[in-house]
Design goal:
The complex is a heterodimer of chains A (299) and B (425).
Chain A: E1 3-12, E2 15-25, E3 30-34, H1 41-49, E4 56-61, E5 64-65, E6 74-77, H2 89-99, H3 104-117, H4 133-145, E7 151-155, H5 163-178, E8 182-187, H6 190-196, E9 199-204, E10 207-213, H7 214-221, E11 224-230, E12 243-248, E13 252-257, H8 263-270, E14 276-282, H9 286-294
Parallel strand pairs in A: 3-8, 3-9, 6-7, 7-8
Antiparallel strand pairs in A: 1-2, 1-4, 4-5, 9-10, 11-13, 11-14, 12-13
Helix pairs in contact in A: 2-3, 2-4
Chain B: H1 3-16, H2 19-36, H3 38-47, E1 51-57, H4 64-74, E2 78-82, H5 87-95, E3 101-107, E4 113-119, H6 124-146, H7 150-157, H8 174-211, H9 214-221, H10 224-255, H11 258-265, H12 274-299, H13 308-331, H14 336-341, H15 348-359, H16 363-391, H17 402-410
Parallel strand pairs in B: 1-2, 1-3
Antiparallel strand pairs in B: 3-4
Classes of the chains: A alpha/beta (299), B alpha/beta (425).
Chain lengths: 299, 425
């Protein structure tokens, strides 16, 4: 039950919001969508959900187009809060779940479970506008997953949450994945994507700049990071062969080198200069790759 | 239960529980009870009070006795008492509140009654009643002088018989016409009020869903056209509930007040042709659907609830113009521009029905009006569904009717517009 996007293009007048996007999102996996505001993430999601028509291309889920018949199998968490401010949590979550084809008793039962899990059972009878932003986001998340969708689309699910709640939600996302849900989610927080996803797609101005499995992307990137903690000055490494970037840290320095092999001469050069507490060659972070590829910094 | 019904019930149920609905319904019921008992309320405030009026008779009793008799025959609230005091003493008593006023009776040079009434307030009601009674006395005195019998006097006073029969009103009796024009009034006001209230409610409801972005979730589960009509029907049912409560309150209120009930029976509701009542219902429903569809469409175009008033303003103007033209038309239903206006869909429910009720126009004209309305509703619904779908995804500078175009193009497969505004991301 994979989601397949083929040459998906969306134009608004003369502006191309999404250009020739082809992706295959494997089932039972968490897929990460990265990009700045305006990169075309939300537009892509809206096309997947059928809210917007495609200018070109096709989107198929399990070999079939997505329409109102498939809506019971799809869950959606919009980027901004999408709840009735004046309605009680129970009333609206149950209503929205019923519109997705769930029956009332079942929806009420599931809601209780989820509220307990998120440690907020006391909000069942509260109006949404009385809740804090973070708690509203929890309700929003429950709304997206209550009917046990097979395809779950999360647009910036962790925005506005404190670290404790981010962990709570992340755990829930992983559990859903393990129970067989295909999850597509967008973020501009690299660490979340890195932690959760196996496959990613980085979008820039409507076009995919990088897409594939996270491991592959990192491997093919080639460049490595070296972090050193030492008592003496590491300034000389700035000019060392093979060093692409040099950054001073509180303990020593963080380097980016062309290849893994460039690490050996650096290590040798350190010997005899003084006390070295740490020397490690690491995989580049997604953030490094992103900055390299897109040339912009986020956050 | 399918999704359409779920949305309908949801709209109806949540709106029914809102404070604003409960409060307006209570005000409405209270207003109906007040109106139905208006005669009692008025008499409560003035009627129970007996007026004490002193009389200074300078005619040696010629006027006082007949005046008292003639007044007593029609009015028990005014008590006349002959007084021996002089004017200065009476004036003092009036200003102290012991008397409501005093009346100085005398005879003029032709030996006919003459009176001066003085009171603290400018109470014209009491003065008029005294004047009428004195007029009767004067009539009797003149009749006595002319040696007229009371029969002849009654003959002289009886009103002339005058009846107007318009020739172009076919098949409608006088009672039916009276009833029809009463019904026209009721329908005009009903359409006017419900469009202003319920259409605004729909527009606001849509705008709230859009601004709270719950629309994005709704529209991915239920198609926009279903949503739109679920909302229109849900609010329609709500309106119907309110109307039924109002009618029930009216019937109940009238049961307790036979005086107003007999007044209403003058309109001969029962003599009204069934077709007139039928058309009233048809035009009311069509009018509601037309304006409700327009309201849903307009509501989907704004991003913030605050902008809704500005957006529905053109719609409000349409209703007001329609109402004004039909009010004018009540006096001159055959004016050419009234006829023309009755074929403009937004005016048809009010003006066409007014013409039917007052002129008894041929059935085909009414049917053409109904057909025009049905076609307009279908066109608006089809356009509305598309604009609704595009409009709910548009955020940004709103409140311009140009948004309709943008919204329309947003749902097109291959947009050709050069507009870059309001592009959703």
């Amino acid at each position: 039950m994979s989601l397949k996007l083929e040459n998906v293009t969306k134009r608004f007048g003369s502006l191309t919001a999404v250009n020739q996007l082809s992706l295959e999102i494997p089932s039972n996996e968490i897929f990460g969508f990265l990009g700045a505001n305006g990169a075309g993430k939300t537009t892509t999601f809206r096309m997947i959900l059928g809210l917007l028509d495609l200018s070109n291309g096709s989107i198929l889920w399990d070999g079939r187009p997505i329409n109102y018949e498939t809506s019971p199998y799809i869950g959606y968490l919009p980027e901004e809060r999408g709840l009735y401010p004046k309605l009680k949590v129970k009333d609206q979550v149950v209503y929205l779940a019923r519109l997705r084809g769930m029956d009332k008793q079942n929806a009420e039962k599931e809601l209780k479970k989820w509220l307990d899990r998120f440690q907020v059972p006391q909000y069942e009878m509260k109006k949404v506008e009385e809740l804090s932003k973070g708690n509203q986001q929890k309700i929003q998340f429950i709304t997206a997953v209550l009917h046990k969708p097979k395809l779950l689309i999360l647009d910036e699910p962790f925005s506005g949450l404190d670290p404790v709640n981010v962990e709570l939600l992340k755990e829930a996302v992983l559990d859903l994945k393990n129970s067989g849900t295909t999850i597509v989610f967008s973020s501009h927080r690299m660490e979340h994507v890195e932690e959760l996803c196996e496959h990613v797609c980085i979008m820039q101005k409507g076009s995919p700049v990088l897409s594939g499995s996270l491991r592959e992307i990192k491997r093919s990137f080639g460049k490595k990071n070296i972090s050193i903690a030492a008592d003496f000055s590491l300034d000389y490494l700035k000019e060392f062969p093979g060093v692409l970037k040099w950054k001073k840290t509180s303990e020593g320095a963080l380097l980016q080198v062309e290849t893994e092999e460039a690490g050996q001469p650096i290590l040798e050069s350190l010997i005899g200069k003084g006390f070295v507490r740490k020397f490690s060659i690491d995989e580049p972070s997604l953030n490094d790759i992103f900055i390299e590829k897109v040339g912009l910094s986020y956050e | 239960m399918n999704k359409f019904w779920m949305m309908l019930v949801h709209t109806y149920g949540t709106k029914l529980k809102t404070k604003s609905f409960i409060v307006t319904t209570i005000i409405l019921v209270a207003a109906i009870f007040l109106m139905a008992n208006i005669n009692k309320i008025i008499s409560y405030f003035d009627g129970h009070e007996v007026k004490h009026i002193a009389v200074l008779d300078e005619s040696n009793g010629v006027i006082f006795a007949p005046l008292k008799t003639s007044l007593a025959a029609v009015d028990k609230d005014i008590k006349l008492e002959k007084s021996g005091d002089d004017e200065t003493a009476l004036k003092k008593q009036v200003s102290e509140g012991k008397l409501d006023g005093y009346l100085v009776l005398s005879l003029d040079e032709r030996h006919l009654p003459k009176a001066v009434y003085r009171s603290e307030s400018s109470d014209s009601n009491t003065a008029d009643r005294l004047k009428n009674a004195l007029q009767t006395v004067k009539g009797q005195m003149v009749a006595g002088k002319l040696q007229l019998t009371s029969d002849k006097l009654a003959l002289l006073n009886s009103p002339v018989s005058f009846e107007k029969v318009p020739l172009d009103r076919k098949a409608q009796s006088k009672e039916q016409q009276g009833a029809a024009s009463a019904l026209v009034y009721v329908l005009l006001i009903a359409i006017y009020m419900s469009v202003l209230m319920y259409a605004n409610m729909i527009a606001t409801e849509v705008a709230v869903e859009k601004s709270s972005r719950v629309m994005e979730i709704l529209i991915s589960s239920v198609s926009p056209i279903k949503q739109m009509f679920a909302k229109i029907l849900g609010v329609g049912l709500l309106g119907l509930t309110q109307i039924i409560i109002a009618i029930a309150a009216g019937v109940l209120a009238l049961q307790t007040n036979s005086e107003v009930l007999s007044f209403i029976k003058h309109f001969h509701i029962s003599s009204m042709a069934a077709s007139t009542i039928g058309y009233a219902i048809v035009f009311f429903l069509l009018g509601y659907f037309l304006y409700a569809t327009l309201a849903a469409l307009l509501g989907s175009l704004v991003s913030r609830v605050e902008d809704i008033q500005q957006m529905v303003l053109p719609m409000t103007f349409l209703v007001v113009i329609g109402f004004m033209v039909s009010m004018y038309g009540m006096n001159q239903p055959d004016a050419a521009f009234v006829t023309v206006a009755s074929y403009i869909p937004f005016f048809t429910p009010m003006i066409m029905f007014m013409r039917y009720g007052l002129l008894g126009i041929p059935t085909w004209e009414v049917l053409v009006g109904i057909a025009i309305m049905i076609v307009s509703i279908i066109i608006l619904a089809v356009m509305g569904a598309r604009i609704y779908r595009g409009g709910v995804l548009m955020y940004g500078t709103s409140s311009s009717l140009k948004n309709i175009k943008t919204a329309f193009l947003l749902t097109k497969k291959e947009p050709t517009s050069e507009r870059k505004k309001n592009i959703p991301f």
